[in-house]
Amino acid sequence: MIYYPLRFYTRFALKLFFRKIYFSNVNGIPKDKPVLLAANHPSSFVDATLLACFLPRELHFIVRGDVFLKRYLWFFKGTNQIPMFRRHDGLANVQKNFETFKYCYQALAEKKTILIFSEGFCVQEKRLRPIQKGTSKMAYGAEENYDFNLDVHIVPVGINYTYPSKLRSEVMLEVGEPIRILDYKEYYDENPNKAHRKITQAIQQKLGAQVIIIDKEEDEDLFEDLLQLLRVNVINDDALPFVTNENEILHKEKALGVTLNSMPEVEKESLKKQVERYKEQMKRLPFPLTVRTIQDRKEKDASFINLFLLIIGFPLFLVGYILYIFPLTFMKSIGERRAKQVKFYASIMLGAGMLINLVYMLVLGIIIGGLTKWWIGFTSLFILPHIGWFSVLYSEFYKKYQQSNQYLKVKKKHSQLIENIQQQIEMIELEQLVEQK
Q: In whole angstroms, what is the distance from residue 64 CA to residue 436 CA?
């Protein structure tokens, strides 16, 4: 079985792919119960890998049936992937869904956990599309098949990215309140369609509470500008921990979205003008400083101790950089060439990067083992990826040091400009916007 070895490897890759992973309320998933995880779907198979790698239980996945090519069946079965065909896949394939439902009913009877992307398709936006009835039908189908003795729970899981197609960004996942199928049995006994509507509405409501939502597409640019300012105060820029159960950032971003959605157009236009004035001031800076550097007044990052750490860490960084510049460049190139839609970019980069790195490490391990001893080559398979990881962290540490030095130079020659920018940020009154929910 390849599920757990692949899970171990993918966890490492995800910690490198993302700068921070926030996963809150994991204990909200009922134990010793059959569970259907109902999640939104903004970033193709990255969504599924995150849940598989950072939830404590083994998952089974409902995926598009058209990707189930015969030569890859060993992989799909080994990773618990279950095909679900749609109308455009043809009648013969749609009829195969009977076997899929039968498999899922059996899995739920064995108290396993199945992941369903309940919107029915992948879309990269800060909105939640209408929930499809398939999740409810699967839950009730399993219960009916076993005389309503399973006690199936549907658990909403919200997946939110800061920048879904950008390396070293952040992702926030939160488990919502479970929906117990048996609590809706009276509706099912009265009319199954009524029960499906009730359950689907409940999923829409509870999953929507775990997702950052911007109602109007034209408000997204303003929202992103506000998020850049908000994240300075709530996202910890320290390298560790990579994975945390903090939920403050998600709750504040959701609250900001609620405020913006309900804001009168007159107030919204005034807010846009304030943000534009701040952005104009930022453009006048002689160096491209980040908002975090200016707001936090990051003089301390340019300390002698940090310079000393950069000097002593440089040789190891250089080794990692030389080792991994080729696979990293190749990975990005594949993502740019193969991703026909932006929602697939991160998934293709992650998948290509994992495969390229695996082959690359095996080749290096064989070469090192051949030139030295076999056990040295074997050990290098575990050491070299961590050297590459160190190089990434070193690069980010250096950027913070560089930003701090540039801030000190700007502050010395353009102190009034720095003060104006800080005043513009204060005038936007972000904390009040977050609290208005």
A: 41
DSSP 69: -
In whole angstroms, give the CA distance from residue 289 to residue 176.
38
**Predicted pLDDT of residue 389:** 93
C-alpha angle with apex 284: 278 to 287, nearest 5 degrees? 110
Those residues with Cβ within 8 angstroms of residue 108's Cβ, 6 or more apart along the chain or in another chain: 34, 36, 114, 139, 142, 150, 152
Start-end of H helices in 212-303: 220-234, 248-262, 265-283, 291-296
Residue in 161, 306, 168 with CA at minimum distance from that of residue 227: 161
What secondary structure does DSSP assign to 225-248, as a single string? HHHHHHHHHHS--SS--SEE---H
The four Cα atoms 99, 101, 103, 106 give a dihedral, to 10 degrees, of -140
Which of 214, 206, 196 shows the shortest CA–CA distance to 143? 196
Which helix (H) or strand (E) covers residue 331, if one does? helix 304-338
In angstroms, the Cα distances linking 197 to 78, 153, 193, 200, 280 are 34, 16, 6, 5, 49
- Residue 402 included in any domain: yes
The DSSP secondary structure of 364-423, one letter per residue, reads HHHHHHHHS-HHHHHHHHHHHHHHHHHHHHHHHHHHHHHHHHHHHHHHHH-HHHHHHHHH
**106 shares a domain with 49:** yes
Total structural domains within the chain: 3
| Percentage with pLDDT > 70 across the chain | 99
Angstrom CA distances, 199 to 45, 63, 147, 188, 287, stand at: 26, 22, 19, 10, 53
Q: Which domain does 103 fall in, by range?
A: 3-211
State whether 89 and 140 are in the same domain: yes
The pLDDT tens digits for 153-193 are 999 999 999 999 899 999 999 999 999 999 999 999 999 99
CB 170 within 8 A of CB 118: no
Q: 265 with 373, same domain? A: no
Residue 437 pLDDT exceeds 60: no
Domain membership flag for residue 295: no
pTM here is 0.94
**278 in any annotated domain:** yes
Instruction: Looking at the structure, tell me whether residues 80 and 204 fall in a common domain.
Output: yes
